[in-house]
Amino acid sequence: MMEDRGFEPNIVAYNTVIDSLCKKGSLNEALHLFSQVKVKGIRPDIVTYSCLIHAMYDLGQQEEATRLLNEMVDNNISLNIFMYNILIDAHCKDGKIFEALDTVDTMKKQGIEPNLVTYNILVDAHCKEGKVSKAEDIVDTMIKHSIEPNVVTYGALINGHCLQNRMDKARKVFRSMIKKGCAPDISSYNIMINGMVYAKVINSKRLWNFFKQCRTASWNSILSVIIS
């Protein structure tokens, strides 16, 4: 260790080790070192937190990641877009859409504009809450800011309409996605197919024409719904 040779590591040195541990998947070791850093009176910076939060998020530890984000805020460390998106996503997953929107406003005041990930989080959250019209307004806003919807955006809208049993609107979004050059993925097909099944339009000619575009995995999806 550097301490044994008379050198006292600074936060840059600790960040290098923490980042290496996180990338190796040794999150517990990284957190232990993080604790030691604070005990030594060395103030973690945004790089320190970024390494740990990235690792936690990749491992699906959203609650722990959110805890560290809140710790950053308490320590007056400015968040970047990645950090804000994690916080916004956490609020949305907890059903706290207003808090998520407040976080977006705070982010903007810091001079950080929402990106595609931010908008997709908000669109998905509103759709799942049954507020598809508001989700469509958010999509209009992102387009005005020169951010084009992607397959995730369209998938959220399709799912929102399916949840409301509005299959005509879901089909309209699906066709619009293709028309605008955004190729549907397997998830898009499965959302649409499951929506059609639950809407009890499985025997329609329109559904059959839709099926002909689908892959084998989508056929498996609808089969599992029918036999369950």
From TrEMBL:
Keywords noted in UniProt: Repeat
Residue spans of the PPR repeats: 10-44, 45-79, 80-114, 115-149, 150-184
Q: Which domain of life is it from?
A: Eukaryota
The record ties this protein, via Pfam families, to: PPR_2
Query: Would the keyword Repeat turn up in this protein's UniProt record?
Result: yes
The UniProt entry, under InterPro entries, shows: PPR_rpt (IPR002885), TPR-like_helical_dom_sf (IPR011990)
Keyword field contains Cell cycle:
no
Per the record, the coiled-coil ranges are none
Instruction: Tell me which family the UniProt entry assigns to this protein.
Output: Belongs to the PPR family. P subfamily.
Full protein name: Pentacotripeptide-repeat region of PRORP domain-containing protein
